[in-house]
Design brief:
This protein has 320 residues and is an alpha+beta fold. The protein folds into two domains: 152 residues, Tetracycline Repressor, domain 2 (Orthogonal Bundle); 87 residues, Hotdog Thioesterase (Thiol Ester Dehydrase, Chain A), CATH 3.10.129.10. Helix content is 56%, strand content 12%. The C terminus is likely disordered.
């Protein structure tokens, strides 16, 4: 019999049996025989197969978290958010790659129906790890290096994509080693968390922005051509935009009225507008047709309405 701790022998044997046959198919007898221990020794440490699974899961969490804290420790005093994220992502993939059977078991088994003692131990480990992780996240968020998000969201952004890739690797869908994915996954996490990524242009596209600028210029030009009107009197009925470059201006420059004319007794305005860049080069042209809204008919009070009606009736009688 081996001089190693029987508990470790049992857990090693159980992991090998679970990886080979699956948790449901593996039996206590098979685990006992692989470990080379007696029934008494096995049941002294573990009263059931579920208890073995819980202890194995606890071993995995402890190993993973210990390695994570070691990977993050060199970055505790720095504000290099990209390096911190890279360390966490690389550790995740490296741990899964190094502990393939244990990682597979933890992914497949998930959270077992914990015995109270094991459940308390797992919660204690998770709380301790969370405190340490917050120690390096908090300064980064306080300094504005990364976004100040809830802890669960931050962790999901950092290791969530790595979890996905690791699962596919464990399932045999990815044949290449895991750790070479570290750079790409760390870049994705950094893009999600970096504070400067929030400083982006408004959601509207460059073409939409150009259209809005041209429409405003057209309405202003129509008001200038018909001084007695305001913007509210006009509406754009047709707008055609032509870009003079494959790369739209970002943002478009000022608008310049090329031509404006009134037709239809001043009720139609036709305008040609140009947007220019900082060098004065035309980047977008717009052609618009505006319609002037008809003024609302005046409202007559009842007595005035009666007088108008009587007058019209009298005119009708006279015409007849």
């Amino acid at each position: 019999m081996s001089n190693r701790d029987p508990k470790i022998l049992i857990l090693d044997a159980a992991l090998a049996a679970f990886a080979e046959m699956g948790f449901e198919q593996a039996t206590i007898a098979q685990i006992r025989d692989r470990a080379g221990v007696s029934n008494g020794a096995l049941f002294h440490h573990f009263p059931s197969k579920d208890a073995i699974a819980e202890a194995l899961y606890l071993r995995g969490i402890a190993s993973y978290q210990e390695g994570l804290l070691q990977a993050l420790e060199p970055h505790r005093a720095t504000l290099d958010g990209r390096a911190v994220i890279m360390a966490a992502v690389h550790h995740h993939l490296a741990w899964v790659e190094t502990n393939r059977d244990l990682a597979w078991f933890m992914y497949e088994r998930g959270r077992p129906d914990w015995h109270p003692a094991h459940g308390a131990a797992v919660r204690k480990l998770n709380r301790a790890a969370a405190v340490h992780i917050r120690d390096w996240i908090a300064p980064l968020a306080a300094a504005g290096v990364i976004r100040d998000l809830p802890f669960t969201v931050l962790v999901a952004c950092i290791v969530g994509p790595a979890h996905f890739v690791a699962r596919r690797w464990l399932s045999g869908l990815i044949g290449a080693p895991l750790t070479p994915f570290s750079d790409a996954l760390a870049d994705a996490a950094w893009s999600a968390l970096a504070q400067h990524k929030l400083r982006r242009a408004p959601a509207s596209s460059a073409r939409t922005s150009a259209a809005a600028m041209i429409e405003t210029a057209v309405l202003d030009a129509a008001c200038a051509a018909a001084p007695a009107t305001s913007r509210e009197d006009w509406s754009v009925a047709q707008l055609t935009i032509t870009s003079t470059s494959e790369i739209p201006a970002a943002p478009p420059g000022p608008a310049r009225v090329q031509s404006i004319r009134l037709e239809g007794d001043g009720c139609i305005a036709i305008a040609d507008i140009e947007l220019v860049d900082g060098d004065g080069s035309v980047v977008t042209r717009g052609h618009a047709v505006c319609l002037r809204r008809k003024p609302a008919a005046p409202t007559l009070d009842p007595q005035h309405r009666e007088a108008v009606g009587a007058s019209l009736q009298q005119k009708q009688v006279i015409k007849t």
